[in-house]
Amino acid sequence: MGLNRERLEAAWPIVQSNLSQSPLKRKLPRAINFDLHIFDRLESTNKTVWQLINHGAVPGTTVIADRQTSGRGQWGRQWNSPPGGLYLSIALAPNLPVANSFQLTLSSVWGIATALRAYHLPVLIKWPNDLVLQGRKLGGILSETKIKAETVTTAVVGVGINWENSVPETGINLRSYQREHQLDRISSLEMLAAITLHGIASGVELMLSEGVEELLSGYLALLGSLGQKVKISGHPGIITGVTPTGDLRVELQFPNHSRVNLTGLAGRSPQSKPSRSEILVKPGTIRLGYDTL
Fold first, then answer.
1. Which of 217, 221, 283 lies closest to 249, judged by CA?
2. Strand order in the sheet with 235-242
3. CA-CA distance, 48 to 62, in Å (whole number)?
4. How does pLDDT run across 131-180, given as a tens digit for each residue?
5. Which of 23, 30, 36 is CA-nearest to residue 112?
6. DSSP class of residue 262?
7. How far apart, in whole angstroms, are the C-alpha atoms of residue 56 and residue 59?
8. What is the CATH number of domain 5-221?
9. Cα–Cα distance for residue pair 141/161, rounded to 1 Å
10. Whole-angstrom Cα distance, residue 182 to residue 173?
11. I need a labelling partner for 84 at 20 to 30 A (CA). Which of 43, 237, 241, 287 fits?
């Protein structure tokens, strides 16, 4: 049985009340401003929202599907979307400078993670756009934008979260986790949808009203891979943070007098001891495996 509109609308004030005691309380949307479109099956919820926008749909237009046949993750990767998961997309009008467009992804994933943590679920973030639970993937974010005069005028934020659908070995679904831990704080797919919409709206509102620095502080606090070891072009490094535009900060350590080729990001080290150099890795350049969490 798929998501039900009446149950979703009934879940909204309950979620609003629950989140009023969370870190999102100052940025909770006051009312349902979402124009909901619910489908049994779609190619892609993001694609459908863009089609609705092309026909005059306004910000807040939200599409939810019980399953997707051509779901997508970031950078064109396939997102498996079997029945039982939450698949939704929402239209936004952020009016962000194009250089800051990735902040939509940062704010959305932080907002959702923070909302889920208010339900005592230890959800973390895997850079740049994944929701992680017990070291496995719970969900992901896909942001797409339309740019005019160097400004992001329109955006679609898509979310996929595993509820009770089948998942790969690196994945986890929320229903199974709650049963295993004898929890029932999120009791339905409709409640999960309401929490997710609250999280997106609150995260984006925080970013737009209070600036990226406060958002980034919260994002880093939930970044599960912070301090973890990675390799960049074969060289060991440690994840030290994320920039306001979404780049990953990695501190690399090079042997004495080493020469490295990192497309101009690091060069020869003249020191007589191992040197350290911070580089910035753009989203989509590398993939962090779940064994790095």
1. 283
2. 229-232, 235-242, 248-254, 275-281
3. 9
4. 999 999 999 999 999 999 999 999 999 999 999 999 999 999 999 999 99
5. 23
6. S
7. 10
8. 3.30.930.10
9. 9
10. 14
11. 287
| Rounded Cα–Cα distance for residues 229 and 66 (Å) | 38
Mean pLDDT lowest for which of 69-73, 166-170, 181-185, 259-263?
259-263
Domain ranges across the chain = 5-221, 229-292
Q: How far from the centroid of its chain's Cα atoms is residue 212's Cα?
A: 15
- 3-state SS, residue 210: helix
CA dihedral sign, ordered 6, 10, 11, 16: positive
DSSP per residue, 91-152: EE---EEGGGTTHHHHHHHHHHHHHHHTTT---EEETTTEEEETTEEEEEEEEEEEEETTEE
- Do the beta carbons of residue 60 and residue 91 sit within 8 Å? yes
Q: Residue 40 CB: number of other CB atoms within 10 A?
A: 10
Residue carrying structure tokens 């074969």 = 234
Q: What angle do CA 17, 20, 25 make, to 5 degrees?
A: 145
Mean per-residue pLDDT, 213-236: 91
Least confident of 77-86, 114-123, 126-135, 202-211: 77-86
Q: CA-to-CA distance for 241 and 246, rounded, in angstroms?
A: 10
